[in-house]
Amino acid sequence: MTETPIRFGILGCAGIARTLSRAIILSPNSTLYAVGSRSFDKAKKFAAENGFPPSAKIYGNYIDVLDDPDVDAVYVPLPTSMHLEWAVLAAEKQKHVLLEKPVALNVAEFDQIIQACEVNGVQFMDGTHWMHHPRTAKMTEFVSDTHRFGQLKTIHSIFSFAGGDYFLKNDIRVKPGLDGLGALGDVGWYCIRAILWAFDYELPKTVTAFRGPVLNEEGVILECGSYLQWEEGKTATFHCSFLSNLTVDMTALGTVGTLQVHDFAGPYEEKSASFTTVSQIGLTERSLPSHHVVTTDLPQEASMVTEFSRLVKSIKDGGSKPEAKWISLSRKTQLVVDAVKASIENGFESVQVEA
Amino acid sequence: MTETPIRFGILGCAGIARTLSRAIILSPNSTLYAVGSRSFDKAKKFAAENGFPPSAKIYGNYIDVLDDPDVDAVYVPLPTSMHLEWAVLAAEKQKHVLLEKPVALNVAEFDQIIQACEVNGVQFMDGTHWMHHPRTAKMTEFVSDTHRFGQLKTIHSIFSFAGGDYFLKNDIRVKPGLDGLGALGDVGWYCIRAILWAFDYELPKTVTAFRGPVLNEEGVILECGSYLQWEEGKTATFHCSFLSNLTVDMTALGTVGTLQVHDFAGPYEEKSASFTTVSQIGLTERSLPSHHVVTTDLPQEASMVTEFSRLVKSIKDGGSKPEAKWISLSRKTQLVVDAVKASIENGFESVQVEA
Fold first, then answer.
1. Interface pTM, i.e. ipTM
2. Signal peptide position in this chain (chains A, B) (predicted)?
3. N or C, which end of chain A is more exposed by having fewer CB within 10 Å?
């Protein structure tokens, strides 16, 4: 690509920022341009360790990244509690916003981010990598196929990992002042997105959290699950946890087909990912599952960055409007996150989900 | 095996009786001896089509099978609503009882069956084939292994099949007067047994049915699901249905390992069955799943018959007492079935499970 790549500034040096720095390097229409941290030395070290070019700008704070006129877009991996402030500021400074998930502490906060992005005409996207893997497009084909899959009846999703003692004491994801949504916002986000994806982004009517979620002493969710209900007997369940072995699973049942993926949020291998389907009708016919393999040159997070930069480029160059789809998906996911949290707080009553 | 095989009488000519007739033929310590149906001609046809020896007794009713002094054991595939009467009668006639699942319409009925079996000293076993597959023993080793699996945290199980229009209008499993427990008793039984198996048969404290089960016009469950809770954040969920594509799934999450089986209740192939495990600790280490294959000479239902006949033989020959384990597993499964049904009937409130 000979055109000028989109120049990224990164706010903060979180672990996930390492993954995204590499993704920006791998993305053909993107380039690492600046990094800001509350500590200049930390930012410098981060840039050195993560392949930033020698010309990259190193800032000892976040605001200087936003004030740099050559930064096109920012990637914001800050703790969730800081998203409102910094995503809004970024939009106001005319920077396009690639924001880590969960996008906000609740949908009211996210609506302020949306407004800032819309008023300022900047592109928004959240950091849900797997949406951009070509495998996802292939799986979408399957669940949309009335002959192979039929109508979706139910989907179950799991995302858990065993955080371990150090994580459970120290990680920002278990601190109420930082990532107050805990496992629900971190890994539950992926489960909810998978469920919405399977339902072609139709919101459930009601959400009922499972009794007995595990909270830490400060009230942050370490493990929870929920039941989601649509009309006509369509349902979903999910389980998210920091307390059990790494499992990243999705099983979707249609009237005539079944889809299974065991690494939906992040494939075991970067260049090759698989999923399994079974299509059949009736009780007695039994067919072996079909194993589908999808190859890709770019890791999914680099595909995400590439798509984001493509959208930014067309706004910058062509006067296109921002693609609103990504805001919509983020908002629906956040609405369900909020409903699960509300159900937990309301004694596991069913909560209506209203767009 | 040169010893006299256990002589089976079969009550009724249900579809599943074809599978069990073959299993009895394949089982080295068992033999087909008699069949009874309300129609003599139907019984005769069944015997001819299912490999009964020419000497087999054909009866035009059930009671004559029980009155035949040469019948050692009966297999009872009658509709659930008839289990109480015929299992009790069989026990009273000193016949050992292999009873199809669900074992009864409720645990109160089952307790009468238990009492009849205990008073008459006959062996009882229900027809949950997969308990007897050698794969199950290998999976038990895995979930019992604190190094590879750790402590069980949660398990999700699915058993569904798309019954189709004819099934949904005509099958005994959708008739309130015959198999009143519908999908819950038929396929939900397997999910509940899988969950109890993973928890080493510890009963859950509470059961909460999911809202919005699908019932037919006569109130029989066509689809439902439930959440089960133990102490210390241990949970399970299941989904059972006559309305979506054949899916027979179990995913168990331990603190350091995960078990997945995609055909737990009946393997895709008779002589070879597989399961998948992942064992790892922590957040960043990622290992590929291990695929385990277990081969067997006998299909699982023939292994079941063989084990049942072995127990019967040792009672007959050696004066052993009946093995009480199988009654216990049936009763626990039925208790959970009853609790799910009670929760559905009580507006999806949590129901305490009491042994």
1. 0.93
2. none
3. C
